[in-house]
Design goal:
Two copies of one chain form a homodimer. By secondary structure, chain A is of the alpha/beta class. Helices cover 44% and strands 24% of the residues of chain A. Chain A has a single domain, classed as SPOUT methyltransferase, trefoil knot domain (Alpha/beta knot). In chain A, strands 2-1-4-3-5 form a five-stranded parallel sheet. The first copy, chain A, is globular. In chain A, 33% of the residues are buried. The mean pLDDT of chain A is 93. Chains A and B meet through helix 1 and helix 5 of A and helix 1 and helix 5 of B.
């Protein structure tokens, strides 16, 4: 079982977002445990994430990958981290330098700026896609 | 009134996607007319799009822009095309060379591959964001 923990500040209030995320969680549930860690504020997020030995930051200034490369990297990270990966979605003001400096990897989804809602949805779909690529199914073809 | 016509093949079946898109259409409705042109198949899409004098293709191999640059370009295009822009979302196999060669601009949303559902949602949110940037509101700040 692969364990993915996603740290963020904002709650998922939108019904459509809950439904969309739920769809991917359902598809992943046999092989993945997805945990959403909602932090109270920036300070809470920083405290919690800095306790983790391995985490990936999502940040506009990070490295850009294709879905194939993301899949490869994700499963390398799973291998080297006892099948457990933490992701961090920052707040509107971005992620502090302190956190970014400690991150194991900083990933940019796009040059475009997305809403937090969209980032959450894109991330879980890319995790699902990465798994399908890893399993060599038809999803990504 | 700005007119945006989005050509694609796949229908929006997912309820969550309809709700999400509807939210942005509602926010845009005072200033934008958004039309979804669903084509039967590739041939139908090709026939319809090649009748248009100006269209933007969404394609992984296109040009990547920040949201600020997308906003700038979008409103330049509106200016030079009587406030009307067509977008084209291709099928799973991508967009034919014939169409790409005739496109006024080829835009890539990301190095990552997204589902058609996601592309539709990202596009309409970016149009909304572009308008907010253009109007200098707080949305993008």
């Amino acid at each position: 079982m692969f364990i993915v923990k996603i740290f963020s500040i904002h709650k998922t209030k939108e019904k459509w977002l809950q439904e969309a995320i739920c769809e991917y969680e359902k598809r992943l549930k046999n092989n993945f445990l997805i945990k959403w860690e909602i932090c109270k504020d920036e300070a809470d997020l920083e405290k919690k994430i800095l306790n983790e030995s391995f985490f990936i930051c999502l940040d506009e200034k990070g490295q850009k990958l294709t879905s194939l490369d993301f899949s490869k990297k994700l499963f390398e990270f799973f291998q080297s981290n006892n099948l457990k990966i933490n992701f961090l979605i920052g707040s509107d003001v971005g992620i502090s330098k302190k956190i970014k400096d400690k991150a194991s990897f900083v990933l940019s989804l796009s040059d475009l700026t997305f809403t937090h809602q969209m980032i959450r949805l894109i991330l879980i779909e890319q995790i699902y896609r990465a798994y399908q690529i890893h399993e060599n199914t038809k999803y990504h073809k």
